[in-house]
Amino acid sequence: MLSGKQKRFLRALASNEQAMFQIGKEALSDNLIRAVGSAFNTHELIKVKVLKTCPTDTRELAFDLAMNTGSEIVQIIGHTVVLYRPADEPVILLP
Question: What does DSSP assign to residue 25?
Answer without folding.
Answer: T
